[in-house]
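Exercise: predict the fold of this chain.
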Amino acid sequence: MKRLLESKSPERWLWLLLGGWWIVNLIQAGTTELANDEAYYYMFSRHLAWGYFDHPPMTALLVWLGGGLGGSFGVRLFFTVLQPLYLYLLWRIVRPTDADVRAVGLFVLLAAAMPILQLYGFIAVPDGPLMLFTALFLWFYKRFTETDRWHDALWMGVAVAALAYSKYHGALVVGFTLLSNLRVLRNPKTYVAALVAVVLMLPHLGWQYQHDWVSFRYHLDGRTRDFELSFVVEYLLNLFAIFNPLLFPLFVWGWWRTRAQEPVLRALNCISMGFILFFLCSTAKGYVQPQWEIPATFGVIAVLFPMMRSHERLRRYGVRVGWITVGLVALVRVEMIFNPLGLHFEIFDNQASYQQIAQEAGGAPVIFDGTYTDAAKYLFYTGGWAYAQPSIYYRTSQYEMMEEDRRMAGQRVLMQVWDSVPGMHSTTLANGKSFGYIVVDSFIPVRQIEAEFDPLPSEVRPGDTLALRLTLHNPYPYTYHLDGDSTVLSMVWRHRSEPTHKYPLLLSGTLPAYGTWSGATRFVVPALTERTFQVGFTLQNQPVSTWFNGKTVKVKVVKE
């Protein structure tokens, strides 16, 4: 260790600093409870597949690899390894020829001053592998543009495939890189790299084809909402927060003045501002999550690092900001472990809260109403059997593609409810939330009953009368009585920017086991807001609403 500390090798000092940061992340990984999405990916890892409803499979694989160690440490272990690797690659990309120990210290301090890198250095989410394979792609791209060798092109194709298996935002990394250097499209090796990527992606593309391209449909359309000014305001505030409010304005100024000569540095510049502007435009269609811009961090560091090296006053400013940020982050990290402020947040009091629910269940399976991350956390913290019933009032999830509810059929279950209903019980959990539930002696699922209906008009007006003809297909060995009481069929008009509208239909009849039922009724379009709705039908036999039974159509409500 003494020899290492006395060494003047930049790379040795880099690994020493990154190693210290990694150890801090290891401690954090094992002592901080899981966030909601981490538990969701843990559930993925219990069912390895080539794809999932809303994500590609890389995150599930990394969680599975560490799962044998148990606890949050096992879930997060391989994610903590990713950060020192991708920061090392970034260093190799931006490393000046006259690099010294002082340059290494500035580089690592700038990285540590990025709040988003502090958080996403240990949590088990897709952004970790996205960052690693972004760095690998850029490294091989750098070598390819410098040497034009075949093996660099082939490895670049492998990195592109790994990006796709990590997070779909990887397509933006590739797209902005090509945009920064269109001449690379004249090189035949580029197309061979693309072919390698496509071949490696075939298992995932095959899974998507078998599941009706569910992930792409969800990300391209399922998140869409009407424009709200708050989306833009919050997005801009988040930019300052995740890239450090004391450094982000300096980055924007430096980016405007930067004229990078090397193709890889031009790519970094294009990726950073490209991500920022792309997701700024995306606020027109809905809320943008802060972590979606994380690949831009590489470009932010790539702009700030040489600028501060060449201006002593800026370097001193960057060092001060870095140490202030590290000090504040240290306080946040302590709070995340010990919670001395007693905050109620998703990483606190999970063990106690879900054990409370398990005690109420008494060994029975638990069905959560729409809250898929709660079902996943229940699985992680108790090992108990749980299912999240997708709800039209929230969104669907990976649980929609699982058979857990079918395996629970006929069993006594504890079912979460939100409204006051006969037989409802309620308990206050350690995390401060109220958990309401009923006990169902014999659970009978309805989720896979398919509702077919005649085409609906693409445009309607409030007051229009629609003639509805429906057919229900029952895959279950149970008979359902449509009587408006024990089983209710409702028409649903759903738009993410406003509360979901559900209208029970005046229908009666018997849906036999493994059989079909057909019926007709009329529906008067209510006074809905002028917009395009997702319209379909849902069947309900419990005091909770499921997701749509069958496919939906888009219907636009217009007014004179």
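Check your answer against the key: The first helix runs from residue 2 to 6.
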